[in-house]
Design brief:
The chain is α+β, with helices and mostly antiparallel strands. The protein has one domain. It is about 20% helix and about 30% strand. It has 1 helix and 4 strands; from the N terminus they run ββββα. It has a 4-stranded antiparallel sheet with strand order 1-2-3-4, with no helix packed on it. Strand 1 and strand 2 form a beta hairpin.
């Protein structure tokens, strides 16, 4: 089993300020900031390609934090 997900999306909504958006695209994580109206903030798009070890560390942290039980 691979630690690399086939799909991944995360958004952190903050009142009256930017939203952090993380999407998996072609094996890369694409991080961007968006204004409250949903438009992208210029110059805030970044891309990273996590290694297998980095994904494994991520999933260990998810389990340690018991993310699946969050409300």
């Amino acid at each position: 089993m691979s630690d690399r997900p086939g799909a991944f999306a995360f958004q952190l909504f903050r009142a009256f300020t930017s939203t952090i958006d993380v999407q998996l695209s072609s094996g890369n994580l694409v991080v961007s900031l968006q204004k409250p109206d949903g438009t992208a903030i210029a110059g805030t798009r970044f891309q990273a390609t996590p290694s297998v070890d980095q994904w494994a560390n991520f999933w260990r942290a998810v389990e340690f934090l018991e993310v699946w039980s969050w409300k």
